[in-house]
What we know:
By secondary structure, this protein is mainly alpha-helical. It has eight helices and two strands. It has helices spanning 7-14, 18-29, 35-66, 71-103, 123-149, 168-203, 208-217, 219-223; strands at residues 156-158, 164-167. It has a two-stranded antiparallel ribbon with strand order 1-2. β1 (156-158) and β2 (164-167) form a beta hairpin. α3 packs antiparallel against α4, α4 (71-103) runs antiparallel to α5 and α5 (123-149) packs antiparallel against α6. The two termini are 47 Å apart.
Amino acid sequence: MSNRPSITERSAQAGPGPASRTLAAFIFASRWLQAPLYLGLIIAQAVYVVLFFVELWHLVENVVATGHISETDVMLSVLALIDIVMIANLLIMVIIGGYETFVSKIRVQGHHDEPEWLSHVNTNLLKVKLAVSIISISSIHLLKTFIEVGRMDDGVVRNADGSVLYSWDGVLWEVVIHLAFIVSAIALAWIDRMSQHHATGRSGGLSVGKIEAGLREDPVRSSAPDDFVTVRLPAGAPLPAGAEIVSNDR
């Protein structure tokens, strides 16, 4: 009986052919098509920078031209500036997080300006952070609406030209939409937590606490020289009870 591998076994051992590898490389390289999209968002952020200083100039101009300005007008102008900043922060999160997740690693580890969330960014975390940012922006708009509602007359707020700026129905729908954003963010955070919980359950959830509990429950096994478990711990982490350093060459 021949020990030569069959044709099927040889094909399986050979791996994918040149055409398959070329197609896979081409599909993987297609992720760079998203790079111009993030460059476009950078241009949009530059537009928001210009808009910020235009709004700031209008605020200063109103104060200098009129000599006096009400607290409500100042608050509305400041809220408009904060709104622009929040949207700019959202753009930064989408640009950096999206590029890091879907295109290529930015490789800024060890940089003193590295964002804290960038080291563990993933799709679920990015969705949650985007949802929280959208809630923050919605809160700013809702606060501006509440300030304007203070001068509501007959259920509406009118502009200087007489057009309707706010109404009771409009304010109610703004509150409902804001609550919908909050519910969506909670749902995303819950889904992210559940996915992490299931991933930990499938992997067995090995931790220092479980290792320590196992060593305490089976002291005979822990003292046996030929039967041990090698575990790598973070630098500076305390050793579990009954554990000892076997090798620190690596």
